[in-house]
Design a protein that fits this description.
Distance between the termini: 38 Å
Shape: globular
Structural class: alpha/beta
CATH topology of the largest domain: Rossmann fold
CATH architecture of the largest domain: 3-Layer(aba) Sandwich
Bound molecules: guanine
Radius of gyration: 19 Å
Order of helices and strands: HEHEHEHHHEHEHEEEEHEH
Number of helices: 10
CATH class of the largest domain: Alpha Beta
CATH superfamily of the largest domain: NAD(P)-binding Rossmann-like Domain
Length: about 290
């Protein structure tokens, strides 16, 4: 088995299963899962992410409702749209692509989304539920990363997991999920002292810092499994390319598993968004508890 963890293949397999489930829901329950994707402004990276999400929906038979709003949209107007989407019965999931422009408070926006439609898992009600071990809607990137880890390692009990990064989107929920699976969890961040030696203790190393090739080969223990959440666009040799938070070429020879960028965690994030949307639709239809 290669030590490269093929997130693209895993995501394709998951989406194939979801496609069958969506077809069944339509045929047997007259239910078509639907998601509203809201993008405010014209951040180029966000545009690519939104396009990829909508494309996946089409492949799976999930209905997508795209709302592209200008950069100068007011917080009040965005809240009005979210309220409409909360009340729209063929919308089962609502995703507001982050970051939103600076004049909009993302906490206010996330709090306005109905928790049952919060397919990003970022509403405090869903975060709180997860914190007490009652997972409802789990954030997509951590969920996808856990699926890859479980597929590669099986039981994670007793392993030392080091998460670099403490964002609400990835670092914090990832640490919570690892703890739920009985890992010993260390969260490292920009103020951590001697981050290298902490990383060297990791059986599982999750890098979510947004800094290109931040994790070097001598930070990583032989035989560790590395999940690289970073997607950083850099200019190199006159070309634009995507690299992760881990120095892949230097790290990969010494580890038991590593996710590449692109083709690792990224496709899993989108597949898990589809997973959460199907789950939300079933839940709203009373088909699951
Ligand atoms: N921006 C980068 N990643 C994400 C994500 O998973 N969800 C949302 N809403 N915005 C993002």
């Amino acid at each position: 088995m290669s030590n490269v963890i093929d997130g693209k293949q895993f995501a394709n397999d998951l989406c194939e299963k979801l496609k069958l489930e969506v077809a069944q829901l339509l045929e047997q329950q007259d239910l078509q899962p639907g998601i509203a994707v809201v993008l405010v402004g014209d951040d180029p990276a966000s545009q690519v992410y939104v396009r990829n999400k909508v494309k996946r929906c089409e492949q799976l038979g999930i209905k997508s409702f795209e709302h592209r709003l200008p950069e100068d949209t007011s917080e009040a107007d965005l809240l009005t749209l979210i309220k409409q989407l909360n009340d729209q019965s063929d919308v089962h999931g609502i995703l507001v692509q982050l970051p939103v422009p600076d004049h909009i408070d993302d906490k206010v926006i996330l709090a306005a989304i109905s928790p049952s439609k919060d397919v990003d898992g970022l509403h405090i009600e869903n975060i709180g539920a997860m914190a007490v071990g009652n997972n409802q809607m789990v954030p997509c990137t951590p969920l996808g990363s856990m699926m890859l880890l479980n597929d590669r390692l099986g039981d994670l009990s007793g392993k030392h997991a080091v998460v670099i990064g403490r964002s609400n989107l990835v670092g914090k929920p990832m640490a919570t999920l690892l703890l739920q699976q009985n890992c010993t969890v260390t969260v490292a961040h920009s103020r951590t002292k001697d981050i290298e030696s902490i990383c060297r203790q990791a059986d599982i190393l999750v890098a979510a810092v947004g800094r290109p090739r931040f994790v070097k080969a001598d930070w990583v223990k032989e035989g560790a499994v590395v999940i690289d959440v970073g997607i950083n666009r850099i200019e190199e040799d006159g070309k634009s390319r995507l690299v992760g938070d881990v120095d892949f070429d230097a790290v990969s020879p010494k580890v038991a598993g590593i996710t590449p960028v692109p083709g690792g965690v990224g496709p899993m994030t989108i597949a898990c968004l589809m997973y959460n949307t199907v789950f939300a639709a079933k839940k709203q239809a009373g088909l699951v508890s």
